[in-house]
Input
Amino acid sequence: MMKWKAASFLLMAAVFFVCGGVVLAGWQALHLEPGHFFEYEIVLERDGEESWGEFHLWASETEPGLLYISAVGHYAGQEFGFSTEADRGSPEGIYEQIAMGLVTQLPEELMEVFFVTLWLPWYETPLYGAEMSAGWTFEDYDLGTVTVAGKEHYGGRDGWLLEIAGLQDTDYVLNTAIDPALPLPIMSRAQNIDLEGSHVHGADIHVVLLQYQEDALPDYAEDADLELAMPDFLQAVRPEGPLAEVLDHFQDHGLEVGELSPKAYEMMGASSGFGVEVEGHDVELYRFDPDVVADESLANFENARETGLFRYPGSDMDIPVYVRADILMTGLEFGTIVIHPERDLVVEVFEQF
Output
């Protein structure tokens, strides 16, 4: 049995083979391009009960070389949405940024649904660049046994059906259909999920492509079967206390403050937090109230104050941050790539708080 938190962050980190300097033939996983549009259906069955949902995932280019990826949908009666930016030329960066978006912006059960279906085919990446054909098989220590069992058809696309059994030496079975011309699977079905502490333990999850478009419009494609607007809860953030004071401070110093968006601040170990547009681009603000947060989270926060790097809980991933009082600001850069055009100005004003 795998432990969920360790497994989920291992999945995020297990892409180091992807960008080894050689572009392989075969399946170019995660080579998302502007205009790529996917519409999926989600069905989760467990103990005779079923949860259902649909979502859109769409990629666009906001700046030269910078890919903006967003997803909007509903699941089990709740609307959801997440978005992230990544270096267009780095499948590894795309993987990590989407994974971070899943972890920080989605409810835990839905986040796990994504991880164990659409994200697992990249586990240790032996499938990246693979030339698939009927009967193709191999064994991998982490993935177990992978076999191409034939072809299946979903969302108007044909794909090779891969049967993956024995994941992490468990009874966990993942069947996934891959069209090598597309950067995401056209179907994934996870069964006998054996993840200790997971919200999806024991579930049967089926994620199926409903449609794909090569050059979708910014409104998520005019002829999409499912019409989705951004969820209402994205407008429901109400900043209070020191976080509200930071926004007032930004405005008092001439910065334009725009829309707010929710963030899963609990996953950061913070007591509160949200995303906010500052000078037209998103930043994230989190408060670490010493009277509320756990000692471990507070120690992580104080270390970030000293180093400028925040260790994401449960992982070995460090993200660049800025700290004033008990407030942490992040989201202005991805690794060494500055993704906020007014980063220096925003940081200068924040450090005067």
Summary: The mean pLDDT is 77. The chain has two domains: 2-213, 232-350. The two ends are 47 Å apart (CA to CA). Residues 2-213 form one domain.
